[in-house]
Amino acid sequence: MTAQPLLAVDAPSLYFRAFHGIPEKAAQTSAGEPVNAIRGFMDMLAQLIRTRHPDRIVCALDASWRPAWRVALVPSYKKHRVAHGDVEVVPPALEKQIPVLLEVLKAVGIPAFGVDGYEADDVLGTLAAGQPGPVEVVSGDRDLFQLVDDERGTRLLYCGRGVAKLEDADNALVEAKYGVPAKWYADFAAMRGDASDGLPGVAGVGEKTAARLVMRYGGVDEILAALDDPDAGFAPGLRTKLEDARDYLAKALPVCKVALDVKLPEFDPARPRAPKDPDALLALADRWNLASSAKRLVDALAG
């Protein structure tokens, strides 16, 4: 019998996706309060449980959505998403729903936590590295392709187009999609850049050139070492671009790499077959008009 996976869920990725994917007017309380993110998240989680059959479930949160140590290395990191100070731009209608969603998860019995100084990605990376396999990471964040590891049984269930159109990523899918193996995805991303995270990449080096460099020389460290070899075979223009970006690349790589050694709080990942606090879940379902989604989630967990 195939071992059942740990479902490691990127909670912010899913609740942002739910919020933007379901109109507020389609999911409200009787008083007109939006619950689209909560309902959408619960329904996505129920579908994942029904289809992936996990025996363990953990939700990762952003305790620090823009960690200071990453910003110190690359100051532009996520800068365009800052509302003020170190606060992320979050639609007010979503912001009000997040505490309720966390109460729902607590009542159901699914651990949800972040770690100060780290993003949800880093919690997911540590779960993938440290928990018994197989591990299935659920996210719409392509940075997490770097966690795919066929040997350990770590897959990314990439929901960039929604949970109904999951891409079940093993190493072959990552190579087919980006031209590099998963173990070098972070190096490739550092060179390519990512506007959504405020990472400029190497000027004049696009996705295809970045993939070619990785496949020829290896990761960023190997590419930078090859620059010191006049016989390494770089075209003059490309050598100049990489030389100009040497300092950036040395700093961007640790920003792009997901941490694998975060000290996690104690938690029990075992899949709850029934709600941990059924009275609390009933009260939340009643107060926030979540009865149908709560039933689907409870039924999925019991199945």
UniProtKB/TrEMBL annotation:
- Show which residues constitute the signal peptide: none
Query: Sorted alphabetically, which keywords does the UniProt record give?
Result: DNA-binding, Exonuclease, Hydrolase, Nuclease
InterPro entries from the UniProt entry: 5-3_exonucl_a-hlix_arch_N, 5-3_exonuclease, 5-3_exonuclease_C_sf, DNA_polI_H3TH, FEN, HhH2, PIN-like_dom_sf
Q: Where is the 5'-3' exonuclease domain?
A: 4-273
Q: Which domain of life is it from?
A: Bacteria
GO terms (molecular function) for this protein are: exonuclease activity
What does the record give as the function of this protein?
A: 5'-3' exonuclease acting preferentially on double-stranded DNA.
Full protein name: 5'-3' exonuclease
